[in-house]
TrEMBL record:
The chain crosses the membrane at residues 45-62, 74-97, 117-135. This is Metal-dependent hydrolase. It comes from the Bacteria. Keywords: Membrane, Transmembrane, Transmembrane helix.
Length: 163
């Protein structure tokens, strides 16, 4: 479950913000960050709304008066919010709203792994398609644009809509 989180997260952020200046690598990192809970054996803070909000608060506090740093690092909480939507954690009230509905995380495994294998594979195919869509939309078959994405995580400004 990697492409299911990376592709749609980047595509949604592009479709919503249309900003070539965002660091889409950081958005992808934020979308994958809650997978750290796999190493912890089950859903924890990173699969809760509180975890994403705390990440947002930390980014906002650490980047005061540093607009460019803020623009880059806001991708982490944005990606984390999208992960919660994409893995279905928002459908588990005990987990999503922890600790506001009690201290129990609701039991069960990680939402992204709590599906039949066929569904997981289908979601990976959808994620692959979303990655392909991003590749084509961002013109990454052009070596200069691909190098820009690799170095800065940004999209060529020529692709941005006019102001």
């Amino acid at each position: 479950m990697v492409l299911w989180f990376v592709g749609p997260a980047i595509a949604v952020v592009w479709l919503v913000f249309r900003s070539p200046a965002l660091d889409y690598r950081v958005v992808a990192l934020g979308a994958l960050l809650p997978l750290v809970d796999i190493a912890l054996g089950g859903p924890r803070l990173l699969h809760t709304l509180l975890g994403a909000v705390l990440a947002l608060v930390v980014v906002m506090a650490l980047t005061r008066r540093r607009r460019l740093a803020r623009r880059r690092w806001l991708g982490i909480p944005i990606g984390m919010f999208l992960h919660l939507a994409l893995d279905g954690a928002i459908t588990r009230a005990q987990l999503f709203w922890w600790p506001f509905l009690g201290w129990d995380l609701g039991g069960g495994g990680l939402p992204e792994l709590d599906r039949p294998l066929g569904v997981i594979l289908l979601l990976e195919l959808v994620g692959t398609a979303a990655c392909w869509w991003c590749w084509r939309t961002f013109g990454l078959d052009d070596p200069a644009r691909r190098d820009l994405m690799r170095r800065t995580g940004q999209v060529d400004r020529a692709l941005a809509p006019p102001p």
